[in-house]
Specification:
The protein is an alpha+beta fold and 228 residues long. The chain is built from four helices and eleven strands. It has a domain of 151 residues. Strands 1, 4, 5, 6, 7, 8, 9, 10 and 11 form a nine-stranded mixed beta sheet that branches. The protein has a two-stranded antiparallel ribbon with strand order 2-3. A hairpin with a 5-residue loop joins strand 6 and strand 7.
């Protein structure tokens, strides 16, 4: 029993210092691996593996949320996949930056950030939530970008944590998928978040440091395409 407890406590005691990572990557663009949410009602996440061209398929992910923030992306032409950056994007949900001109605009005043500006009464500018998570046994954070259809699930989960006097970086969160169909008959995959367990005191101390370091790095990330 005691060995099991020790092993569990060590799940989120990473040996990596994010400050060291920034020093090693000084002058280079910092990127994070990304977990892909499937389309069409798929029930398995595409998780980066040893071979970049062969992601692992996982129905469930257990991780600690280190940091999260809103992100908006607007494509003039319908996005069909690939690595092309949005025509306009925002990494804070407040100020948008046009890709070609560098012009900055307030997102709240943008006509593309209003309902009925996009398909089926939605917004032409898509709202996502970029979440930096630390998976069990891993040393570096990974990005999980929640699509618009999963935003409510995230908001309810965070609200429930707050009401139970917990913070998202003090618990282990379980991420899973549910197949849903919208009013127009389109099938999609919704991300479901649920509480797994509280972190131990040892884990909380380590994760608190990683959260601050990740937040600092995230503010300087220029990459805005989380849809590939």
């Amino acid at each position: 029993m005691s060995n099991e407890i020790v092993k569990r406590e060590e799940q989120f005691v990473a040996n990596t210092n994010m400050d060291d990572l920034q020093d090693e990557l000084a002058g280079m663009s910092i990127t994070f691996d990304k977990i892909k949410v499937p389309s069409g009602g798929g029930l398995a996440f595409e998780v980066p593996g040893i071979n970049p061209d062969e992601p692992d398929l996982q129905k469930e992910i257990k991780a600690v949320i280190l940091y999260h923030h809103p992100m908006l992306s607007y494509y003039k032409e319908k996005y069909t996949g690939g690595s092309e950056a949005p025509d306009c994007s925002s990494i804070d949900g407040v100020t948008g930056v046009e890709r070609d001109t560098g012009e900055m605009k307030l997102c709240k005043d943008c006509p593309y950030n209003q309902f009925d500006s996009g398909e089926n009464g939605g917004k032409a500018c898509k709202t996502r939530r970029r979440i930096f998570i630390l998976r069990e046994g891993k040393a570096f954070p990974t990005i999980l970008s929640l699509p618009t259809a999963s935003m409510r699930e995230f908001q309810v989960y965070i609200k429930n944590l707050i009401e139970s006097h917990r913070k998202s970086n003090q618990v282990v969160t379980k991420f899973s998928l549910k197949k849903e169909t919208n009013k127009t008959g389109i099938t999609y995959s919704k991300v479901i978040l649920s509480f797994d367990r509280d972190l131990t005191d040892i884990e909380k101390e380590n994760i608190s440091k990683m959260s601050e370091q990740t937040k600092s790095i995230a503010k300087n990330l220029q990459e805005t395409n989380d849809t590939e």
